[in-house]
Amino acid sequence: MNAYMQRVLDEVKARNPHEKLFLQTVEEVFDSLVPIVEKHSDQYEKYAVLERMCEPDRQIQFRVTWVDDAGKPHVNRGFRVQFNSAIGPYKGGLRFASDVTLDTMKFLGFEQTFKNSLTSLPIGGGKGGSDFSPIGKSDMEVMRFCQAFMTELWRHIGPDVDVPAGDIGVGGREIGFLYGQYKRIKAVWENGVLTGKGFSYGGSLIRPEATGYGAVYYLQEVLKHEGESIEGKRIAISGYGNVGWGIMKKAAQLGAKVTYFAGPDGYIHDPDGVVGEKLDFILEMRAKDPMHCKPYADKYGVEFVPGTKCWGVKDVDIYMPAATQNDVNLDWAKKIAESGVKYYIEVANMPTTNEALTFLRGQKHIIVAPSKAVNAGGVATSAFEMSQNSMRYNWTAEEVDEKLHHVMTNIYNASVEAAEKAGLGYDLVAGGNIAGFLRVADAMMAQGLV
Ligand code: 2IT
User: Is the N or the C terminus of the chain less surrounded, counting Cβ atoms within 10 Å?
Assistant: First the structure.
């Protein structure tokens, strides 16, 4: 790292002493950018590109007061971090989970900026959410929370300003309640203000599955590069939310299968794969109780291993962590390396600690693909939803799926090309970061010091 990069990194660390996750992603990205930034350091320093990329345009924090079914008041903290608008309106999900802090929002907003750039669509980076968890709450409690949350958020967002979507804890139900309150307050029909909506009021077909589908399309490109096909492949994943479910579904469509999946209570091993009606059962099980996957084992008579993750199992071809951040630490990474499995495809946002990621990237027999690229199909399909809302027109599921496939192939190719051009060889992690960076950096320099 040259003096410019080191200075910026030191400044970012000094300014964010408590923001561990945010610093983790900044360090990971900077590591990839070394050959690019060093080559054009004068230009980037002149326009303070790195400094500005690491400091959000603005971050909004607000109190959310709501009342539960028993009449008891609750106070939560709401956030929206508008990170970077160089290439389009802020775009990124809302996360409702009890461990959400400003740090979580900043790490996700920073990642989102690079990811959205990679899609080649006109969307900037943002993220929001709350330390409220919908788990164990009634529909009416979730509705009152969402209404209170939107009563603060609405003034900061808009179809050309900032377009939130879902993330962990925010699915179709929450988006519906949030949209209803936005419409009530503004008295307008601006359904381009949120994505992940229900189809009846402007949602896009395929959006719920898009992140998982996109991840499998990206995986197909990786396999192609190795002269392999996806057919017959066995996959181990963590998480079985919309993202994990989308992976299961697309894998099944393409003749592969998810044979292991892990949840908060342990992991499932189903050698026949999660296919057919089992896909519907996953949805049912999740809706009843998102904290336990054991009912799957009870229903289908397969193995359930409580209290641990499935990283390190040998009878699979591909690992795809699709749950949450820092799911795979160095200990798990060592087990993964020992297993002999060749493909480590990140899906959740930052699912690997930096230590573990460096370790895995150093293993010659493992191909690592980064989440920023692999999971970008979700937000890409959100951008398609925005397009459809602007046009007052709906594409068919086939049209959306085809566009999604196209975006994912492009992301893969752009990543390969960016790393090769930077002299790094076949490096999907660095290539993804570089390709995402270049577009935002160009736009920021063109628009001057703002
Ligand atoms: O992490 C992500 O890309 C998302 N949660 C989806 C963002 C979006 O705007 O669809």
Answer: C
